[in-house]
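agent: user wants the full assembly modeled, not chains individually. Plan: 1) parse entity lines 2) check alphabet per entity 3) run joint structure prediction 4) return tokens. Steps 1-2 passed, three entities, 833 residues total. Proceeding.
--- entities ---
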Amino acid sequence: MSTHSLTQAALRAEGLPRRRAINRLMELLAWLAAVIAVGLLVLVVWSVARRGWSELNLDLITKTPASGFLATGKQGLANAFAGTIVIVLVATLMALPTGILVAVYLNEFAPAAIRNAVSLTLDVLNGIPAIVIGIFVYGLFVLGHGQSALAGSFALAVIMLPLVARSTMEVLALVPSSLREASLALGAPRWRTTLSIVLPQTVGGIVTGTTLAVARAAGETAPLLFTSSIVGTQIHWNPHHALQSIPVAIFELSESPDPQDHARAWAAAFVLLLFILFASLTARWLATRGRRKLSTSR
Amino acid sequence: MSITIEPTVRVETRRQPLPPRERLERIFNIDSLDALYAGKPALKAVTMDVYKNLVTAIIGPSGCGKSTFIRCLNRMNDLIPGFTQTGTIRYHGQDICAADVDPVAVRRHIGMVFQRPNPFPKSIYDNVAWGLKVLGMKDELDDRVERALTQAALWDEVKDRLKASALSLSGGQQQRLCIARAIAVKPDVVLMDEPASALDPIATQAIEQLMNDLKSESSRTTCNRLRGSRT
Amino acid sequence: MLSGAAAAAATAVVGLIVWKLIEGAWPSVTKFGLHFITRVAWNPVVGKEAFGAASFLFGTAVTSLIALALAGPLAIAVALFLTELAPRALRAPVTALVETLAAIPSVVIGLWGIYVLGPLLRDHVEPSLHSALGFIPLFGPPSTSGSSVFTAIVVLTIMILPIVASITRELFLGVPREQKEGALALGTTRWEMVRGVMFPYARGGIAAALILGLGRAVGEAIAVTQVIGGGPFIHWNLFDTGDTLASKIAASYQGAATNLEVASLVYLALILLVFSLLANLSAHWIVRRVGRRQGIGLNRGGAA
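--- prediction returned ---
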């Protein structure tokens, strides 16, 4: 039974038009899904941009929120900007070296069983909700001692650690073993090999991973709610005090009944979003450039 | 290495002498076929005919475009990004590269067996049955599966483990399973792209014997490539 | 070795988290035991204190599961688009766009949810759904504030869509070309090939991706608490306010009245932790079992 005719009649007998219709329907659904996904992104970014842009002014960064009920004059979120800079910076200082060390250990020194176990632990750590991490650090550092930006930074560092470690591990794995072997063959000890030969090759990847981790940390609210949220309105830089941060400020302003507060929330959200989008795009661009360099240098 | 396909097709059969040209039924007529990958030419001005009930072999040095050529015959090159072709390929007089021809219909009638065995990660039975079910040949499913596996000289070896995973078979068996899968849906033509190249000599012989048997049963023309010509 | 110490410390952190949470929740655990999980209550009034997680568990279950049911198919369809259907020039940019959706901070999505999505749903979507399908208890009368379980579900769907989509996309990219060509060469349509070859191939990984997405939804505190309204009740009306485990904890950040209430909040966090550990470990286990065949790894996952 072989009809070797591609005519419509022959094909209809085999049910091809119906199968083709189903195929077309599925294609349309997939296109629709993509439009929805991109549309949602555009919608959210556009909303934030539109409302944030009109409220954006220099006062946001230079003025502090007014205290007291009879607040007059311009208000801003200077304390939140300062606080975020301190908190994220300290968190990065905590997470970056630790993450690199963990990645180096896992990739260069650890036997396979330990590597799998610690890798799993990192993945589990990555999956713990940020609010739980906040409660954890609250119990660890805040209870009995009071809030502080340090506690907040520690919470953020716990969140950043798996991200830095994982991206460093990925890029370490890309370094050809021939490099390591050449160095070891010359008699250099393992730690020296890692430090002078392997790590320099990974700087690009580490920068990319760190940028993404910083972008993530800058936007986190939940870990800071219990560790660094009872704050004054003045600008402080001392990490031993609780400092205001942009995400927490947005959170509080969003729940306020005052429309002026909403305006500042939108403006701050706009700035935060711009920073994070810029950081993400930069990281992505660095990653593609790094990949290209690695492939051409082989 | 120059890219040439021999202008005449050498057709070898072990048993019958070649019928005279006038009595041969033409299945494919390829005319001035050019094929390019992202602008780089792979085939230039190929013109030839392929006839029914014959094994047509394309032989040439590696990289000369044999794979490209037979993939043109069932529109498989459509799946390669950047691929373009000009010229006509007529199948029973119909241009299969015309804009209004659905490649799905083309591949329904022109089946293919690939260089490396690629069975689905399903059971042996399902590998053969899946295509039949999707293409609407669900009646007498068990019989059809058995017939295909028998024709592929695999039935005896797998008949009591049809539910086992296809990946548990040896390379040669997997390739015969792929052949069974291809012929189960009763295509008019089976294209074979170096089907034995990944196999050992014994499995190769089995495949070649199989091709000869398929050719002589019902209306089948197979195009294939053999490593090293035989007389 | 210094780096070994760092790795040990990283591992120890997880254990420390578990220990600290148990320690913090202990007063509530000893007082209420496992009944905490089944009691519907949240009364901090001294003398009549009663705390229970049941209403929050219910809220978490409803919001997360429905969000997963919405985001899952959507994400798989997006992944299919990105790997099979999109014109090649569009693939990289649209992939970047979908992954950018994951980078938007929860508080920004929550802000958008309160003032853009909430009013939109309250004024247009919920009334029409209520009038059309009001006989189903799910679609009861809309709340006046715009805060509702339904808004939270939409927000969660937006947040877990990119995670599931990007993992599924990598799974689809990993399906070997010979498999796809083998199916198409039989004369099947592309959808038939997807259904017969790609889905079975990626099945395990998709399950793991969905579990990770669920974990993300369950753990989301900030955006949910901004839009869900609060209230320790169990009810079926999606358009009314509600609460989840994570959002209850976040809503109480300004301080709890009594030590017992604090301990009960930590108890809620402990339940969350247990769930997220289960979700992560089972996703890992699935990938390990399937990974033999395909050699994929999950490089994503995370909750905010």
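agent: reporting back. Chain C has one domain: 2-294. The two ends of chain C are 33 Å apart (CA to CA).
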